[in-house]
Amino acid sequence: MPYLDTFLKALKTRPLEWSIENLISGLKRRQIRTTMSCVIATAELLIVVIARSKMRSAEELLIEIQEVGQRLIEAKEMVVGNIVRRFLRMIRDEADEDRNDDVRDSNFAASYAVTKGTPLQNSLFDLFSASNPPQPTDTGRSSPQDQSNINADAEALQAEAVDAGQEILDEVKQSESNIAGYAPEHILPNETILTHCHNRIVQRFLLKAAEKSKFSVIVIESHPNELNGSDDVDAAAFLKSLADAGLTVISTTDGGSWAMMPKVDRVVLAARAVGSNGGCLVSVGGPSVAGVAKFHGKPVIVLCGVHMISSADQIELESMIEHGSPESIVGNTGGLPPNHDVETILQQYLPPHRINLYITNLGGYAPSYLYRLVSDQYSSKDSNPRL
Amino acid sequence: MSQKSGKGAGAGTKVPVKGKKGGKKVEDEREETLQAVILADSFETRFNPFTLETPRCLLPLANTPLIEYTLEFLAMSSVADIFVYCGAHTEEVERYIQATKWYPPNSIASPFNTLEIVKTTARSVGDALRDLDARDLITGDFLLVHGDLVSNLPIDQALAAHRARRTADKNAIMTIVLRDEGLEPQREHSKGIAPVFVLDPTNNRCLHYEEMHPLQANKYVNIDPDLVKENTEMEIRTDLIDCGIDICTPDVLALWAESFDYEVPRRHFLHGVLKDYELNGKTIHTEIIENRYAARASNLQSYDAVSKDVLERWTFPFVPDSNLFAGQSYRYGKGGICKENGVVLSRTCNIGKRTILGKDTRVEEGSKVSSSIIGRRCTIGKNVTIKESYIWDDVTIGDGSTVERAIIANKAIVGQKSHIRPGALVSYGVHIDGNQEVKGSSRITRAKRRKNSIEEEVPPDPKIVGETGSGYAFEDKDEVSDDEATAFHSTLIYSTAHLNISTESISTISSEISAPSPATSRSRHSSFISEDSESCTNEAFHHDAVEGLLGTLRENGDFDSAKLEFMGLRLSNNATDQQIRRAIAVAFTKRISQLVENDKLDATKAAAQAFGVSGADRFIKNVAIGDDGSEADQVDFIYRLQKDLVHRSNGAMILAAVSQRLYQMEILEEKAFLKWWGESEGLGEGEDDGMKAVRGKTKVFIDWLEEAEEEDSDEDEDDDESD
């Protein structure tokens, strides 16, 4: 990920605006491609946004994050939007905590004043109770001491938000190993696991399980592999790592999945983006494998980080599917004949009824239960896709 | 995604090894910034009439100015400093770039450290690069690209290979990035001039470069025998698309500066440097890419080709729905339709696949649009058919009109029930009345015509745009004399209908062609010079010989020394008698036509001057005709003269003058002239129109000769009788 590295390096020294523009262009030009690097870049950028913010209230900070987030989301919806919403939710939570403390401290007179609609001068309460908070300084009735109080509170909030942002980042970075940690519970000795393409999370998941028990893996290949690209590892490296771990590895084409399926105990796939309805986007060809599994009554497990789950529904997910260059399908032929169309979709939608279980970094969830995770992660105030 | 390296396996193995060798140095130099030079204008007129009003690099391709693609490519390549060179419309380019996100002073978000628009009076690429050398702006390796480049190629690999080579060998000065066009010829394949690369597959070195011209008499590449001796392997390739990306060291600029006569990067510079390898030892390498996209929209046909590639998404991620250009909001929908916000489509209109529609464009009831790009704020009326066309911003197309394979520029208006035929170009603000038919070959503009550096309004031509329309048919005066057959480039649709490119009998080199050439009949008299001997003419010999003789003629030099040189050249190239005659004929006719055209001399006087150079008569007699002076050789020489003069203006006048002169000088005999004339007449219908026209004026001379002969023979008879 050289682009990600240079971006992160420049993030510390360059002006914020430069970094934002740079990330947006990187996303648009597909120079930052993998889900993980998109998430890391976004999270790091948002942490810097918070740290450099000159805000005086949580509201201002939220607006700032929304503005930056809006621009990032326009560049690339999926995971970037999720991270922005996580941050917004996090700031709301931090502000709520502060307010709760304040409410406990405030006296009866203060609460009384609020009910009467007069702005409070000695508390931050008003900042969160009104949608358009009256500025203490604007009222002209604030004393210097109140002013410093507010500044101190804002600084505290800023510090807390940066810490919390860092936690989100850490959680994302550890999500893959967390998911892999559940592997031994789901893969038993001498089972046969079928997977599609060469996803990195699947690789870690299988390797983790291989530490405990030995089993067989059937790898379904789809052509063209590079389409399923961004989160995949090199096919040869993928197969070799599994074989080195002492597993029995069988590679076959996607046409072979029907013949292989009766032997299989479980199908393991990896998601790119997950909707709250329980459907998800997977590599092209994944849904057909899942369809075969459904026919044979085999369980389909989908691996995903919690950060991939969004409030999107099927239509929104399908609109996110990217269309790539026809080159990977028809090769370097130099233009298509007039009646020849090439559909080069880079992801495919897998409906929830084809999935038995999601394994996230927070544990296993049924597709029908994902909405709970969504409501836990994001605030309903940020559910608007365009922020 | 890893790039598969070039053709040969050698390429794959050699480069990494080299990389390892120079590994440490490369590491040190990674910090050095990469610079780039954009040639925003390639000093050509191929996009006329559009470029009369807008610089070429700002023409929209898929609703995004061309230069944006180039800048995105450079941003993707992590270039730090950019210097933009433009010829025409510099202010406009400057104003445009300064308003974009790229321009560093007004935006801290620009990925570039500097972006400088260099003001220059350069008239060619060569001038621009020599100017750049003089300015001393380039500090290290730089990318030389054109302002019309569209590419999604990650340059890293080519750059690393270049740097490794450069650290290993200081003389490896340049790496050219070429695209393998695969099994089938690609749309971007230059249909006019075909580049021929001779490569050493073991190390990707470029050994020789030539350009093939469709009008060229023979399709041969002339390779220096030494190259064959030195290199055990060689690939001669015409299947490479030159996307104009060069990775250069500063030495390249020095070379440009040394050679004042180089004007274009390929035909002059590349060819010249490779030819002078013995002299300067500089090597040029190539990087052949197979699985990424790179192409230039360098003429209207390639504009068409690249636009189609964007529609088919070969350029991904540089497709409209990536919204790379500020302010765009494209979404990719089902069936390959890219729409911006605010597009209004009526219920019964039919938007076909591979279509791009810009913001606030309306398509009314019953209209059909397919494989087209339509800009912003356009209004497409009812029952309009648009196919494979490029319609820019603010265009209005009236009800019931059809537009097919045409380009319609900003703010143009097409009236009701008009028909724009394939190949038509409608420039800015042109208003075409209702019920008009715009022919495929027409280029309509409203631009002020420049006459003797005074701009003047041109009245609308009602024949073309209708009674109330505005605009006139654009004609380019320069074009006819343009040395690159512009006819190939300035039309949207590649067509050879008006050009006869299949005949092998057009025996001029590319620089001498004035299009359109006359149709040449293939049914020739059997006694004429055999086609075979001609088609194996040695092009290099011909070129050098003509140049040498011309030099002598121009300087009024001494033909005795020229003869020595000429014979040397003849021996070294093993040229045949026919070739020699052809070269001499071409040299003299060229000189005479130059005298006629430039010095406004009378054809007779010009001929006298040209043949009056000291030793010229002896030279022609000895070398061209041969010492024995056989009749057949003399006839051949006349044919050569005639054939070359077909392409020249005033050819008929010159041929008459030359014939007379050569007769007077007793170089050619009357029998030869009469035989030539008789054979030509004998062809009758089979004779080429051009050839016939050229010899028309000579008829007087021949008649005179015939009369003289009759008198002669009369006298002979008298003599006989008297005897």
From TrEMBL, chain A:
The cross-references to SUPFAM superfamilies, in alphabetical order and at most eight, read:
NagB/RpiA/CoA transferase-like
Task: Give the matching InterPro entries.
Answer: eIF2B_beta_subunit, IF-2B-related, IF_2B-like_C, NagB/RpiA_transferase-like
Localization per record: Cytoplasm, Cytosol
GO MF annotations in UniProt = guanyl-nucleotide exchange factor activity; translation initiation factor activity
Q: Annotated region Disordered: where?
A: 125-148
Principal location listed in the UniProt entry: cytoplasm
GO CC, any one term: cytosol
Q: Which UniProt keywords apply?
A: Cytoplasm, Initiation factor, Protein biosynthesis
Give the similarity note: Belongs to the eIF-2B alpha/beta/delta subunits family.
User: Subunit structure, per the record?
Assistant: Component of the translation initiation factor 2B (eIF2B) complex which is a heterodecamer of two sets of five different subunits: alpha, beta, gamma, delta and epsilon. Subunits alpha, beta and delta comprise a regulatory subcomplex and subunits epsilon and gamma comprise a catalytic subcomplex. Within the complex, the hexameric regulatory complex resides at the center, with the two heterodimeric catalytic subcomplexes bound on opposite sides.
UniProt-listed PANTHER family: TRANSLATION INITIATION FACTOR EIF-2B SUBUNIT BETA
Q: What is this protein called?
A: Translation initiation factor eIF2B subunit beta
Q: Which organism is it from?
A: Amylocarpus encephaloides
UniProtKB/TrEMBL annotation, chain B:
Q: What is the lineage of its organism?
A: Eukaryota, Fungi, Dikarya, Ascomycota, Pezizomycotina
Q: Which CDD domains match?
A: eIF-2B_epsilon_N (cd04197), LbH_eIF2B_epsilon (cd05787), W2_eIF2B_epsilon (cd11558)
Q: Which InterPro entries match?
A: ARM-type_fold (IPR016024), eIF-2B_epsilon_N (IPR035543), eIF2B_epsilon (IPR051956), LbH_EIF2B3/5 (IPR056764), NTP_transferase_dom (IPR005835), Nucleotide-diphossugar_trans (IPR029044), Trimer_LpxA-like_sf (IPR011004), W2_domain (IPR003307)
Q: Which terms in the GO cellular component ontology are assigned?
A: cytosol; eukaryotic translation initiation factor 2B complex
The reply to whether Ligase figures as a keyword in the UniProt entry is no
Q: What subunit structure does UniProt give?
A: Component of the translation initiation factor 2B (eIF2B) complex which is a heterodecamer of two sets of five different subunits: alpha, beta, gamma, delta and epsilon. Subunits alpha, beta and delta comprise a regulatory subcomplex and subunits epsilon and gamma comprise a catalytic subcomplex. Within the complex, the hexameric regulatory complex resides at the center, with the two heterodimeric catalytic subcomplexes bound on opposite sides.
Q: Which UniProt keywords apply?
A: Cytoplasm, Initiation factor, Protein biosynthesis, Transferase
- Into which family does the record put it? Belongs to the eIF-2B gamma/epsilon subunits family.
This chain belongs to the protein called: Mannose-1-phosphate guanyltransferase
At the top level, the lineage of the source is: Eukaryota
Q: Which residues form the W2 domain?
A: 536-715
Q: Where is this region: Disordered?
A: 1-28, 442-470
List localization entries.
Answer: Cytoplasm, Cytosol
Position of the signal peptide: none
